């Protein structure tokens, strides 16, 4: 079989003192942290679309990276070459999972029946090439935003025929996800939203989206899919008003339409930024609602107002994220690098540098998060901040046994309350620094 990355060796852990660009500095797959091996805490996944497809094209210029892998793009030969390159890439990095959209795997044909035939062919090829390896599918999804028919969305479309095409794509993507052993299935509503209320029936569209999701759940369970369905919140881009704005909005939608028993959140760091939240916030909101499922591990640029999908390098952000994951008891999904090289980083070697960066960042974040939890000062401060609720009146508030009149009477007896205890934010930030840079 052709070797696509001849200049890249198998990537091994060499420690933080290493200057070898093709070595992990912090990601040691077998190292035990907080009772589990790193690779168990951090089931990393390769995004098929970015890593094997994105060539650096943007609104202002053509691609800068060659992702042909020796074949003609738009052909089944190219689809198979991407499989070969992807398997080699994952083997050299020790990555055991991948994620895909249907049209990442094969070129879409004019006839959906031909597209489905191609998906059957390529999924057979993936199973053949990954047989005897640890490589498997983390989750699959359908691209229901790229084709012009989805200009008004998929579940939110104004066309019944387009709605049927969306259903057909979801059905086939679920078939392939189950065939490849996927642990999850994602709905990313890239165009599930609207531009103006002048031509939009919001209630009608949301009911149709929920119906499509119910149909997907029913079909998935009927073919043996036992994993979680995910919603991946995103506030804008490409639609001005997207229905899955953030985790709280998506969770409310799921509960309103009775989907909360089958769905969890697939949280992306860059989407949190676009929603005006931190990555940590979106993870916390998902976790406290019992809906933290999987993570798209990337980051955005705070100076840019769009989805830049950069490889994560912010250790503070990764540490805060891993604190949420550890406190939640881990993920049902994994950490998909929904990230792409910067346009000038256009060599095959750059693909590996990017993944080494991302994997090392989250490995270091995992270690520091575990250390902060073990240190205990952050949690101790939280308990002290709310300890007034351990008083008699506080306990009545917590167990819902006090009436409004009783609470008001307590306030009148006090005449004037003391100020709440200090939040000690700056001290706690210094605690974080002391652990991170120990």
From TrEMBL:
SUPFAM superfamilies: Xylose isomerase-like. It is an enzyme of class 5 (isomerase). It catalyses: alpha-D-xylose = alpha-D-xylulofuranose. InterPro entries: Xyl_isomerase-like_sf, Xylose_isom_bac, Xylose_isomerase. Keywords: Carbohydrate metabolism, Cytoplasm, Isomerase, Magnesium, Metal-binding, Xylose metabolism. GO terms for biological process: D-xylose metabolic process. Mg(2+) 1 binds at residues 232, 268, 296, 338. It is found in: Cytoplasm. GO terms for cellular component: cytoplasm. Its cofactor is Mg(2+). Binds 2 magnesium ions per subunit. Its EC number is 5.3.1.5. Its main location: cytoplasm. Gene3D superfamilies: Divalent-metal-dependent TIM barrel enzymes. NCBIfam families: PRK05474.1 (NF003998), xylose_isom_A (TIGR02630). Homotetramer. Belongs to the xylose isomerase family. This is Xylose isomerase. It comes from Lachnospira multipara. The lineage of its organism: Bacteria, Bacillati, Bacillota, Clostridia, Lachnospirales. The gene is xylA.
């Amino acid at each position: 079989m052709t070797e696509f990355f001849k200049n890249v060796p198998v990537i091994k852990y060499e420690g933080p003192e290493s200057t070898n660009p093709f070595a992990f500095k912090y990601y040691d797959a077998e190292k035990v942290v907080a009772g589990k091996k790193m690779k168990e805490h951090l089931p990393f996944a390769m995004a098929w679309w970015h890593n094997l497809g994105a060539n650096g094209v943007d609104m202002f210029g053509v691609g800068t990276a060659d992702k042909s892998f020796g074949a003609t793009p738009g052909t089944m030969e190219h689809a198979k070459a991407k499989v070969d390159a992807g398997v080699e890439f994952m083997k050299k990095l020790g990555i055991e999972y991948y994620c895909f959209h249907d049209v990442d795997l094969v070129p879409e044909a004019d006839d959906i029946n031909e597209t489905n035939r191609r998906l059957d062919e390529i999924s057979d090829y993936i199973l053949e090439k990954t047989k005897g390896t640890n490589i498997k599918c983390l989750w699959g999804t359908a691209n229901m935003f790229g084709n012009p028919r989805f200009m008004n969305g998929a579940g939110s479309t104004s066309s019944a025929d387009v709605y049927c095409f969306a259903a057909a794509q979801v059905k086939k993507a679920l078939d392939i996800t189950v065939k490849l052993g996927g642990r999850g299935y994602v709905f990313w509503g890239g165009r599930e939203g609207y531009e103006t209320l002048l031509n939009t029936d919001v209630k009608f569209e949301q009911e149709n989206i929920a119906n499509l999701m119910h149909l997907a759940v029913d079909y998935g369970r009927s073919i043996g899919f036992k994993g979680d369905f995910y919603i991946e919140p995103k506030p804008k881009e490409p639609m001005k008003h997207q229905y899955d704005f953030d985790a709280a909005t998506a969770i409310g939608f799921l509960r309103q339409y009775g989907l909360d028993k089958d769905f969890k959140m697939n949280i992306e760091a860059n989407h949190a930024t676009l929603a005006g939240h931190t990555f940590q916030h979106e993870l916390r909101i998902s976790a406290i609602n019992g809906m933290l499922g999987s993570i798209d591990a990337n980051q955005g640029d705070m100076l840019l107002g769009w989805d830049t999908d950069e490889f994560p390098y912010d250790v503070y952000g990764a540490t805060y994220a891993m604190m949420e994951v550890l406190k939640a008891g881990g993920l049902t999904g994994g950490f998909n690098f929904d990230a792409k090289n910067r346009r000038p980083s256009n060599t095959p070697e750059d693909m590996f540098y990017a993944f080494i960066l991302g994997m090392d960042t989250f490995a270091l974040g995992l270690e520091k998060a575990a250390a902060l939890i073990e240190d205990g000062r952050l949690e101790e401060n939280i308990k002290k901040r709310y300890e007034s609720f351990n008083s008699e009146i506080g306990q009545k508030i917590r167990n819902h046994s006090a009436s409004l009149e009783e609470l008001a009477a307590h306030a009148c007896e006090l005449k004037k309350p003391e100020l709440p205890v200090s939040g000690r934010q700056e001290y706690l930030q210094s605690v974080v620094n002391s652990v991170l840079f120990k």
